[in-house]
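Late entry, zinc ion complex.
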Amino acid sequence: MAIIKTEAVVLKGWKLGETSKILLLYTKDHGRVKAVAKGARNPKSQFKGCLEPLSRIAVIYYDKPARDLQLLTKADLVTPHYHIIGDIAKTALGLATLELLNKAVAGEEPFPQVYDLLCSTLERLDRSEKFSEGIFWYFQNHFIELLGYRPNWSACLKCGASLRDSGGMFHPSRGGLVCGQCAGGAGGAVISGEALEILFWMQTCSISEACSIEPDPVQTAEIRRAFDLYFKTHLDYLRPLNSLKVFYEHERSKTARE
Ligand SMILES: [Zn+2]
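Prediction complete; structure with ligand written out below:
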């Protein structure tokens, strides 16, 4: 048994018995870890207030490799992300980020770059006052790249022709975007040059810049669909993100009220 001291983001939590809690953590040094926090739901617990999903915490736990559930002994809040929690749209986007990461990453492999990307995404979402969905797009663009599938948003996969003015068609069976000619009339999701320009720019812009864009509703719909198709193409085991449905629903009702 080893004593592990690291940092983590709380992905999920479940009640256990009368007072305890099971947590799914994404740790900086050991990937995804499931741990029990004994007595965490007791009002006087030392864990109080720091084990909610989206919290970034410093943790100490006992690790037994043969065991599925580790024992959490200490947790201290590093960043609570209160502004995410106080805002329905930001909460849904933050939870969609956690859900995507949890569904896409397998096992307990450490992946510090993914951890750093997750932390900067949540930190920026917490401070964002503009187009928060841009931060989720930034996360998806860089996350899929870290997983080894850097999207090519600028050129046809078959002939190499630039797509940034003309737009392209997304063909999951061909692994990405092709030009109109190479698509050969076969069905595919059409993506405009403007939407591709945003996606391409997001591969090199800073995370702060990612929330400064102002896409119109058509571009927004195209970009949402492009990410959905791209993730499904490369990670075919991925299931739809429930938190993202909540976010889209919230956006729809907000537009209907305006
Ligand atoms: Zn082509």
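The chain has two domains: 2-80, 83-257. Will revisit in the morning.
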